[in-house]
Prior knowledge:
Oligomer: homodimer
Helix content of chain A: 40-55%
Shape of chain A: elongated
Strand content of chain A: 15-25%
Largest interface: A-B, 49 and 50 residues
Radius of gyration of chain A: 26 Å
Number of helices of chain A: 13
CATH superfamily of the largest domain in chain A: Response regulator
Structural class of chain A: alpha/beta
Amino acid sequence: MIKLSDIAAKAGVSESTVSRALADSPLVNQKTKDLVQQLAREAGYKVNLVARNLRVQSTRTIGLVVPQVANPYYPKLIQLVADRVKEAGYRLQLHLSGADQESESDCLTSLYEHRADGVLLVTAVNGLVTKSQVESLVASGTPVVLLGWVEGAEHLDLVMADDARGGYMVGKHLVDLGHRDIAVIGARPHRGPFDRLSGFQKALNESGITPNLVSSARSDEEVQAVIHDLVSLPKPPTAIFAYQDFVAALVFKHLGAACISIPDQISVVGFDNLDLGTYICPQLTTVDLPADQIAAEAVNLVLARTQNADDDANPKRIVVSPELILRESCAPPRR
Amino acid sequence: MIKLSDIAAKAGVSESTVSRALADSPLVNQKTKDLVQQLAREAGYKVNLVARNLRVQSTRTIGLVVPQVANPYYPKLIQLVADRVKEAGYRLQLHLSGADQESESDCLTSLYEHRADGVLLVTAVNGLVTKSQVESLVASGTPVVLLGWVEGAEHLDLVMADDARGGYMVGKHLVDLGHRDIAVIGARPHRGPFDRLSGFQKALNESGITPNLVSSARSDEEVQAVIHDLVSLPKPPTAIFAYQDFVAALVFKHLGAACISIPDQISVVGFDNLDLGTYICPQLTTVDLPADQIAAEAVNLVLARTQNADDDANPKRIVVSPELILRESCAPPRR
DNA sequence: CTGAAAGCGCTAACAC
DNA sequence: GTGTTAGCGCTTTCAG
């Protein structure tokens, strides 16, 4: 593995000169610079970053930890973050925390051991399981910014989508269409007052309505059971708010199996704006979380902290607004 | 940032002893070991891997480069590879090559500069654009294994799915059901003789049939146009082979819009076995590429090369077989 | 069982 | 402009 001294020998100059020449430093004679660069190219020399990083005490690496990569929301975010990070001249180190506590901790440890310059952390549904570890990371000088709301983390930098606002939009849309019997299907909320469900309920409350059914269902079987119960009701709901798009897709499937047509008999709204929503028929009305804004804000923030460009000690909280995407799965209720 | 010498000072021993104690070496007295470990824990000491990696001349890092993360096949693969790599005590460094040549080259360069111990490379549709670079990587002692067939790379290690065999299964299934008029929709083949399309055609040829239409269409609009043309035919095909699942989903959508029922009027088969296929109605008959086997084989191979456990100079070629997943989107043609 | 010393490959004062 | 030197934080001979 060819190194600096090798090409220094070839060129008949010192290592420092080679180092400078390759960094295109103005402190070196153009002729030696050309010579060195040419020699390096010919020899296929590439700097050893592990050595350089040790020397300069920086890795120009930003860590990103996400629970998993299978859930289609994450790939979008990962791609966007990767692009922004690269653009800024940094490198991304992705870690999959697998949604369990132990491995979230492992990711953070690994990032610290590799001396990442900053970390972006997307917590799993169970919230921030490693708060103290994050705090010590920050204390040790590695900025951490949280992606998504986490309970009891008010002292940490945070970039989040305004889920509650998205939920409110959904609720308002359905109410405005004339719906009064509305069911909710999906996971239990985990973002407390900032949850999409809380905004949704607020919208209904403003019109004096309460959701007539809130079921926790995520798997195919669970959704099937819930839909079965719902359509067996003497007076089934006229609209369903699915907590996530993929749940909405399951709702579509089982509503279809029960010969209930969307949106004629029941309107359906999702949340997340996955591509999936455009592949199903009718196309799904949903809420788009602006992953691009989140990625951009998060990367900017963590880099600002890294470079001490922003030495404001107060935690930053950046909230970006979602958008209601009107497609084909909603209509006024039939009378 | 606390380092080895700090805790050596605290413990009143030398750095070497601390290093050994933390590595749980048998060469150190149990009592000093306990003391050192406790002190290290209290102080929150974590090894600096960039220093260690420089010293030991290894990073225990495997690079994985994939074109993108948005295409749903990749997340599956990434997750699987990440799990296997971690299991083996290595770390994964993911790079997104963005499907363009320049950045595939950048990824490889970055991996080399960081001295990854091995790399797994998934090439984009345009084939291996950086063959010479891969070769010099290998020559410099970093094993590279290709994931997926690449033209003119017979001298490199390769793990691939037998796409042609999958295509054959699809063709045979359709023919066995009685179909004679079969259209193909999707991308142009890029795996030459190993392409799913070549296997598909072989199956038809064995029964003296030729596909009556092969259209290249990937976007929503393109598929819409193709479907429109197809159903306007005096004698429309009775079955459609979509080159990829997401194309199949689009086919579903536009067939639905044209009031053609699946599988009564037209059977549809996909390829890839994305989750998507179970969300649509009827559920999609498709071919599953065994991502878990591919991941396992690839990681095993690259690690074996890394550790010189396998110093066979001959390139390895591991081919894993796909599986036909029978679901609801196919039926015999109506007479 | 423990310590002293060397050195991984590179960059950056500091001299000349 | 260029070379000499020191040192980033760690592991690992080699002595004792």
